[in-house]
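Lecture notes, unit on protein representations.

Consider one protein chain, 212 amino acids long.
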Amino acid sequence: MNILEKMGMVGIVPVVVLERPEDAVPAARALLDGGIDVMEITLRTPAAEAAIRAVADQCPVMTVGAGTVVSAKQCGRVLDCGAQFIVSPGCREELIRFCVERGAVLIPGCATPSEIMLAVSYGLEVLKFFPANIYGGIQAMRALAGPFPRVRFIPTGGINGENLAEYAAERCIHAVGGSWLCGREDIARGRFDRIAALCRQARERLNQARAS
């Protein structure tokens, strides 16, 4: 099973912002306790690269990726840290080419037909849709899936435990992403049991949505 297949099976990609590298492994273990073995650590803080390296080194059962990657230079650094996939908020050809040449898994952000066409021209078919709540949510992705039936989306932005099932039930959705499962405050306060509980709850809702 490759990384994208694993994401589709799990159905949820927690987006994690870490202020301290030492919180990375406890956060990863909390996600695993909750039944989720994929996580995206965003490059929004100076601690991100060290956090990715810590998870890759100390928690090998977790599939860890890097988010908010906007340049090939950043991409090279996080791959060297052990990132197993790359998530970008936008669709930049330089970054796509770099990842294709390195054989790295890239999920670029695409919200328009032109961006999707660029990604598809490089063989990419699992795409980030961000910010989902601003760019039309489910209705927008349904419309985009019409001319691009092979494309599957990982929407982020405005997704939470309340609307998770609604998104997950859509055929064009590969998985959903969000920060509500592993929030910055919960991490800062060491509430890793709560993170695990939120993950279990989300997995239950996801499974119910897929079964219906």
